[in-house]
Write a structure and sequence with these properties.
mainly beta, 54% strand, globular
């Protein structure tokens, strides 16, 4: 059974850093594109960063230069390194894995940026 499990969220002060992890099981992880999305209260879910099976990355303009997405196909885990966090980064962060029409979501992890 396919499963994505996020971890690493929490409370951090503005300017701080967090690293989110997304551990996959039950899928051929290396073949999937992986993305991080986030959803703030009252807002739509938005794409934060994505990495293809080949390692190409793209980022939302709002996080470019601050966030870095990466993947370790041996560990079947994707990461989102978040630096210089700001209150507007507060949201539930979700991991997504997709291969053509096959898509999976994690349960989400809360990130709160506040002093």
């Amino acid at each position: 059974q396919a499963q994505l499990v996020e971890s690493g969220g929490g409370l951090v002060q503005p300017g701080g850093s967090l690293r989110l992890s997304c551990a996959a099981s039950g899928i051929a992880f290396s073949m999937y594109a992986v993305a991080w999305y986030r959803q703030a209260p009252g807002k739509q879910r938005e794409l934060v960063a994505a990495v293809t099976s080949g390692g190409s990355t793209n980022y939302a303009d709002s996080v470019k230069g601050r966030f870095t997405i990466s993947r370790d196909n041996v560990k079947k885990t994707a990461y989102l390194q978040m630096n210089s966090l700001q209150p507007e980064d507060t949201a539930v962060y979700y991991c997504n894995a997709q291969l053509i029409a096959d898509m999976y979501w994690g349960q989400g992890t809360q990130v709160t940026v506040s002093s």
